[in-house]
Amino acid sequence: MTSHTPAVPPATAPGGTSVVFPAVSPGGAPAVSPGAPREVPPVLAEVVRSGFTEGHHRGTLVLLAADGSVEFALGDPGVPVFPRSSNKPMQAAAVLRAGLDLAGERLALAAASHSGEWFHLDLVRTMLAEHGLTVTDLRTPPDLPLDQVEAETFLAAGGVRDRVVMNCSGKHAAMLAACALNGWPTDTYLDRDHPLQRLVHTVVEDVSGERVAATGTDGCGAPLMAISLTGLARSFRHFVLAAPGSAERRVADAMRAHPEYVAGTRRSDTWLMRGVPGALSKMGAEAVQAVALPDGRALAFKIDDGGIRALGPVLARALELLGVTAEVRERIGRAPLLGGGVEVGSVRAAF
Asked: How buried is residue 306: exposed, middle or buried, by Cβ count under 10 Å (0-12/13-18/19+)?
């Protein structure tokens, strides 16, 4: 594979996300300010309806070889981005480093953007109760299930927006449990200077090999650390290659063993981890995706406009370039466009 000449993607935060830029970025160079001029990132996906290309999704992508070197890139994967929920494995590793003894489905749920299915919500409540906590301790915003099918079922049954239903509630339950274990304040567990959040910051830098370039606030209210897409891919590579028994390897093993708890029964992360043995996969809001294969090959990308509909086709093509031949690739890559209820086109990778 050959590397493409990079174009510089935005260093600004996703819409509505607050951000603080430090004086320097990873490597010691001046940080990119929110208003800095930039080149237009390359097209990663195109929207084709009835044979006519009606739109494009631009973004940045990086593929790593098994030895961790950059094998292929589109755009500039060295520019910091907010990984959004692709940071969750790092946050789960932090609660383990804090001494919380989680395993199996509980640890997978601590790294989850769950769909709001019944087994997700039951386990969140159980995890809280096991540590003397309740749903009222959660600082997640009240929400509906992330999965559309689950949301329709939930509403039809009379459900209303709830903190426990929000897709990050498993992560928050684990964070609260770590605080309860250590005697740390639970009412301020989302503050950037809280001991747990400082530990998350340390983990992100440890596994990415970079300084955190910016700190913002994620949609769930938790602190959000910006790193480059190359750093994100290397973080996932670190998790799958970490020594057995380490916090990172424990998280990776739990996610891969229980992918339904990481995502849900109708989600691409689940399909990929079930369909490609040993793969570790986690998407994030604003169309961020990171994957590592058990031999150390890895990928990370971000769709510039946050268009989630482009995520599957881009992921499928990136997996193909990494040499993944599993049938699940086709399932992940399907993104049909409908006209009058009939498939008339698709979103497809353009590289």
From this structure: middle
Distance CA 319, CA 348 (A): 14
Cα(71)–Cα(63) distance, integer angstroms: 6
Question: Which residues lie across from 30 on neighbouring strands?
Answer: 24
Buried b (16+ CB within 10 A) or exposed e, 78-106: bbbbbbbbbbbbbbbbbbbbbebebeebb
**Element housing 329 (H / E):** helix 328-333
Check residue 84 and report its DSSP letter. G
Contacts of 344 (CB under 8 A, 6+ apart): 49, 50, 337, 338
What tokens were used for 191? 């503050």
The three-class DSSP label of residue 108 is helix
Q: Note down pLDDT in tens along the chain; length 351 residues.
A: 434 433 333 333 333 333 333 333 334 333 445 555 567 899 999 999 999 999 999 999 999 999 999 999 999 999 999 999 999 999 999 999 999 999 999 999 999 999 999 999 999 999 999 999 999 999 999 999 999 999 999 999 999 999 999 999 999 999 999 999 999 999 999 999 999 999 999 999 999 999 999 999 999 999 999 999 999 999 999 999 999 999 999 999 999 999 999 999 999 999 999 999 999 999 999 999 999 999 999 999 999 999 999 999 999 999 999 999 999 999 999 999 999 999 999 999 999
- Whole-number Å distance between alpha carbons of 152 and 251: 31
Amino acid at 69: S
Q: How far is CA 87 from CA 7, 158, 215, 273, 329, in A?
A: 24, 33, 12, 17, 23
E strand or H helix that includes residue 26: none
Asked whether 275 and 328 are in contact (CB, 8 A), the reply is: yes
Q: Is 157 exposed, middle or buried (0-12, 13-18, 19+ CB in 10 A)?
A: exposed
Helices (H), 194-257: 195-208, 229-241, 247-257
Could you tell me the end-to-end alpha-carbon distance of the chain, in angstroms, rounded to an integer?
12
How many other β-carbons are positioned within 10 Å of the β-carbon of residue 8? 17
